[in-house]
Write a structure and sequence with these properties.
Strand content: under 5%
Largest sheet: none
Number of strands: 0
Distance between the termini: 12 Å
Number of helices: 5
Order of helices and strands: HHHHH
Number of domains: 1
Length: 100
């Protein structure tokens, strides 16, 4: 049991950082604002809401644009999932670090 705790205390502190780096990577892959500006759809901020993306997927006629928006929506969801994973892994990593 001590070997497992020792291994987790060595590896686990890096886990929130890894999750955060993955979240930032997926945020950078989400180019929904650029897609909207290419189609002359004006947006107020660089963070386009999921509701607006879904609305444009439903109402737009161009299949390649729809496909790109679906990928942007997937990247946006992955960004949120990895941010939540990083936030939830941080207290556990602090606990395991001080447990040693």
């Amino acid at each position: 049991m001590n070997d497992i705790l020792e291994y987790l205390s060595a590896v686990w502190p890096l886990t929130p950082l890894l999750f955060f780096i993955l979240a930032v990577s997926f945020r950078l892959l989400d180019n929904s604002t650029s897609l909207f500006l290419q189609k002359d759809i004006l947006v107020c901020s660089s963070n386009v809401s999921k509701k607006l993306i879904k609305q444009e997927i439903d109402h737009h006629y161009d299949p390649t644009f729809k496909r790109k928006l679906k990928f942007a929506l997937i990247f946006k969801r992955l960004h949120q999932v990895f941010l939540l994973m990083a936030a939830s892994a941080l207290p556990v990593s602090i606990f395991l670090y001080f447990l040693q």
